[in-house]
Amino acid sequence: MTAKVDVIVVGAGFGGLYALHRLRQDGYSVKVLEAAESIGGTWYWNRYPGARCDVESMQYSYSFSNEIQQEWKWSELYAAQPEILAYINFVADRLDLKRDVQLNTRVVSARFDETSSTWEVRTEAGEVLVAPYCIMATGCLSIPMVPDFPGLKDFKGPVYRTSDWPHEGVDMTGKRVGLIGTGSSGIQATPILAAQASHLYVFQRTPNYSIPALNRPMTREYERSWKDEYPERRLAARKTRNNTLNMAGSKPGRDVSRDEREAEFERRWTQIGGISFMYAYPDMTSDPEVNAHASEFVRRKIGALVHDPDVAEKLMPSDYGIGGKRICVDTAYFETFNRSNVTLVDIRSDPIERLTATGVKTKSQSFELDVIVMATGFDAMTGALKRIDITGRAGVKLADRWAEGPKTYIGMAVAGFPNMFLITGPQSPSVFTNMVTSVEQHVDWIADCIAHLKTNRRKAIEATAEAEARWVAHSNDLASKTMMPNANSWYVGANIPGKPRIFMPYLGGAAVYQDYIADVARKNYEGFSLA
Ligand code: N01
């Protein structure tokens, strides 16, 4: 049987749930299809020990309802995963969203029918849904990447992924644990695993820059200060580069003395903590001298925190500058390597050759393990979309259109794919921002666009190929003016063998981007053709 609704939304994370709420408010029938057995998206799957957001909770939360943001109470400055998932469920219950979310439903294909101007969406179970509009709220980091290590199947013990950790939890007490991967997930998991395991081996290919979170319990005063000024602060956050109030400095680092910069880095490291370090100066990733100074500052900190100079040296990133890869935020990560039950294994100089029945064999050593934890990242930004067989006008497949890298107009639309909207798609600021605010901005823009089509009795909207090409060129141009495309990061798809190398997020800043997309709408959806 074919079910018909006004809007199909794929994914029930922050983006999909807000899309459901907003479009329902606007009077549309909406169905959200979600592969998992519960809502929450990223925060449903990533429940590894230590999982926590590194944007402050007072900000990493919905802003569309002042009542809701006043009601919810966060217990810590940076909430842990269970609290964020509880918050998402609280909002969903409060707004009665769950009745329009169909769980355990994986979308396998979506096809645009030109005659009826509708999307036909099929699920793994063979169900078919039809709607004029399809919103892909599939997440930027939702497809886990596990390297195809030789012997992966030979290992007799359990292999866990941080990206879909067992919901019942895992007791590592007394176990010899091998953790592969030292990105944000591995860095958060390391101290917790070390406290449980009899021995923890951390297999590191590329060291990362990581800043102490300085996480602490939420104080009544801090919470009050936010809640008293929520509307003004939310507005101010939307005028920043990343939709977050990070105490961003406005004076370029190249215009101040080295001593002044040093003092500012020290203040941010010891008194503020977290990602705010990257906002000390607006030219942190574009001015080579400022970038080199900040990078060297963090390397010195690592040297001071880690007792063994050889281990410290291996933990110091040296072949790319700070910000080239996504900055990490930690609680006692580097200090964990001072524990006698923790060993850092440098797999850059001594690569993993294979997994064996009893552990990991590198070129020169063998490690006996009971458990392996993969913190090896995601097929970021395009992975989830490319896994759905999406067919646009004239039978064109999205996977083919994107064979040489993703191409979008303003991160939300693709030429040849009318009435399909992406939430936080490639070439939008997405992963460089507070994602919750960015999904709100996208959903609001999309809802306004659908209202415009209805008012003007139009059936379809599609990005033009010219507008898309201009936007992609603009996004690439912005990236090329920074040092960011140089590092082998997931921003450029370098972590996935064979993935085309293109810098995927938009680097113009959230506020500039927001003005731009508002302007597109004001100019009668400039760059789109309406039918
Ligand atoms: O994944 P990653 P993540 N052999 O891709 C290594 C967000 N996030 O899950 O750098 C050996 O960063 C790889 O090594 P290398 C955040 O945006 C946020 O940690 O490629 N090692 C790297 O060390 C983040 O950036 C939060 O050399 C291999 C690691 O695996 C994003 O999610 C928390 C390998 C993967 O690191 C992804 O983070 C967690 C191989 N074949 C995540 N392949 C917070 O808000 C890969 N690796 C706090």
Percentage beta strand: 15-25%
Enumerate the distinct ligands.
3-acetylpyridine adenine dinucleotide
How helical, in percent, are the residues? 25-40%
From the 3D structure, determine the CATH topology of the largest domain.
FAD/NAD(P)-binding domain
**How far is the N terminus from the C terminus?**
29 Å
What labels describe this entry?
single chain; alpha/beta; five-stranded mixed β-sheet; binds 3-acetylpyridine adenine dinucleotide
Structure commentary:
49% of the residues are buried. The chain has 2 domains: 2-143 and 380-530, FAD/NAD(P)-binding domain (3-Layer(bba) Sandwich); 144-209 and 323-377, FAD/NAD(P)-binding domain (3-Layer(bba) Sandwich). Strands 1-7-6-5-19 form a 5-stranded mixed beta sheet, with no helix packed on it. Strands 4-3-2-8-20 form a 5-stranded parallel beta sheet, covered by helices on one side. A 5-stranded parallel beta sheet has the order 9-18-10-11-14. It has helices at residues 14-25, 42-45, 66-71, 81-94, 184-196, 220-228, 230-237, 258-272, 288-305, 309-315, 333-336, 383-386, 398-401, 435-455, 465-480, 510-522, and strands at residues 2-4, 7-10, 30-33, 101-102, 107-113, 118-123, 128-131, 133-136, 159-161, 176-180, 199-204, 210-212, 328-330, 342-346, 352-356, 359-362, 366-368, 371-374, 389-391, 420-422, 461-463, 528-530. It is globular and about 70 Å long. 32% of the residues lie in helices and 16% in strands. With 531 residues, it is an alpha/beta fold. Bound molecules: 3-acetylpyridine adenine dinucleotide. 3-acetylpyridine adenine dinucleotide binds next to helix 5.
